[in-house]
Design brief:
The protein has two helices and three strands, in the order βαβαβ. It is an alpha/beta fold.
Length: about 60
């Protein structure tokens, strides 16, 4: 994975936020830059984040 990119961990709703947080913590422990976002209710912010240098990962 390109180190210049941030892994954008996406939780579909707040119900999945805890699982997404666990994944984000594991990635950070491995030295990867990460960002966590909840999709539900934040559609514009998520779309804006996707235009950056990110690798999106959706947690289900």
């Amino acid at each position: 994975m390109n180190d210049a990119r941030t892994v954008l961990v996406l939780a579909p709703s707040t119900a999945q936020q805890a699982q997404a947080g666990e994944l984000m913590n594991a990635l950070q422990a491995a030295g990867q830059a990460t960002q966590l976002m909840v999709i539900e209710g934040n559609y514009d912010q998520v779309l804006d984040a996707l235009t950056g240098a990110v690798v999106p990962v959706v947690v289900k």
